[in-house]
Design a protein that fits this description.
The chain is an all-alpha fold and about 120 residues long. It has one domain (about 30-110). Helices cover about 90% and strands about 0% of the residues. It contains two helices and no strands. It has helices spanning about 1-25, 30-110. The termini are far apart. The relative contact order is 0.03. Keywords: Coiled coil.
């Protein structure tokens, strides 16, 4: 009889352990639904925050790209103006050189100098 009581005591101890475990460690169906709902809400809030941050980054990136485009266009415009100025100066210098060559040829003919061999 002592062996059976010991066996029953062990079974009772195991049952108490299992009840305690279930009460402290295992969630009910309602608790699981509440936790899932809470996590869904948290995910939704995080998703909204992420979308807002992405939108702000896109706006910032768009502004920065626009600024860079404006800087590039400004530099290109400056280069085009400089090129036109250099082109005008080149035409003026070419005209001056041709005029001076004419003067030198006229002077060399008058002095009877051959400038082509010199």
């Amino acid at each position: 009889m002592g062996g059976k009581k010991k066996k029953l005591d062990e079974i009772l101890e195991l049952v108490h352990f299992m009840v305690d475990f279930v009460q402290t460690k295992v969630a009910t169906k309602e608790e699981l639904h509440e936790e899932i709902s809470r996590l869904d809400n948290k995910i939704e809030r995080l998703d909204i925050k992420l979308e807002n941050k992405i939108e702000k980054l896109n706006e910032k990136l768009g502004k920065e790209i626009s600024q860079v485009e404006n800087k590039i266009l400004s530099h290109v415009d400056g280069f085009v103006k400089l090129h036109k100025c250099i082109e005008t100066e080149t035409v003026a210098l070419k005209s001056a050189v041709q005029r001076h060559e004419g003067y030198f040829n006229h002077i060399s003919q008058h002095l009877k100098l051959d400038l082509k061999n010199s």
